[in-house]
Amino acid sequence: MIDLRSDTVTKPTEVMRRAAYEAEVGDDVYGEDPTVNKLEEMAADLLGKEAALFVTSGTQGNQLAALTHARPGNEVILEANSHIFQYEGGAFSVFSGVQTRTIQGNRGAMNPSDVAAAIRGDDVHEPETSLICLENTHNKAGGAIVPLENMQAIYQIAKENQVAVHLDGARLFNAVIASGISAKEYASYTDTVQFCLSKGLGAPVGSIIAGEERFIKRARKWRKRLGGGLRQAGIIAAPGIVALRDNVERLTEDHQHASELAEGLLNIRNLSLEAIVETNIVLMNVKETGLTAKEFLLKLKDQGVLAVPFGPYTVRFVTNYGVKKEDIIKALVAVQAIV
Ligand SMILES: Cc1ncc(COP(=O)(O)O)c(CN[C@H](C(=O)O)[C@H](C)O)c1O
Description:
It contains 14 helices and 13 strands. Helix content is 43%, strand content 17%. The longest helix is centred in the C-terminal third of the chain and has 16 residues, at 251-266. The relative contact order is 0.17. α7 (148-160) links the parallel β5 and β6 (164-168). The two termini are 20 Å apart. It comes from Aquibacillus salsiterrae.
């Protein structure tokens, strides 16, 4: 099977498996796992933040940000198609007791004046706005890169209103490689940032959240409260170190493959693309084929290719390091066979 469902399906490399086997470990609840500590220091340094925390998933990282930045009764502003709003089970409301306020963005970028207008005042009837969440790259916008200027403008508005900013940077390094802007630069326009080791970077487990020391200290306690106190976690942190060290630059290949896939799809009748391809995600519209996305995907699976529905007529392909150039050609042949 050619698996284009997501970059979450990446499997650890031999180097990662060996690093896991050889990892020095200790009890991370006591802060004594040297491998986890090394990963956290590497990540904080890369992002230009005071500290970082190894967490079990991107979702956990985003939830810890809300639990730490916000409190029950607050309102959190986020983009209408953000992963936090669409794919995390309403966890902001469940765990943090906050009200979410969505703003429709353009290719994932919220208009700064819309954000400014959404920030609540001190009227007794209103919730307090305590957090603004950004997402870069933006998944449902087709892996779109949110412009740095947009992040900068929103961050300035947030600071003028004493509101925190969190970046869901699950695919931050895809943005870094595609734009040539450093992770440190992107992270300078957000108070906290989450990025995934387990997606395009290829680690088997985990994400990082990073921010000020005092934020990370409070987030670590929230992680413990959620049963996320890790013990000899160096075994799963070691592949994360390999991912950060070896797998960032190669994301270019995934982007190249996504562009080749998109180009090929444009030459197939009754198909269209829903977004320009900037990184590793391709959103294809199949409505003109007379099939729904789910029907199309069943036929595609019969042809040996996996992808996921991202709307009634939207099929999402995500390239990753398990997908080679010849797989892209085979995937195009499979799609052609259906329409
Ligand atoms: C922008 C963003 N932020 C956070 C997460 C959550 O990461 P995990 O909790 O899966 O590690 C994801 C995962 N995205 C997954 C995928 O794209 O296949 C699914 C949709 O959950 C994400 O795309």
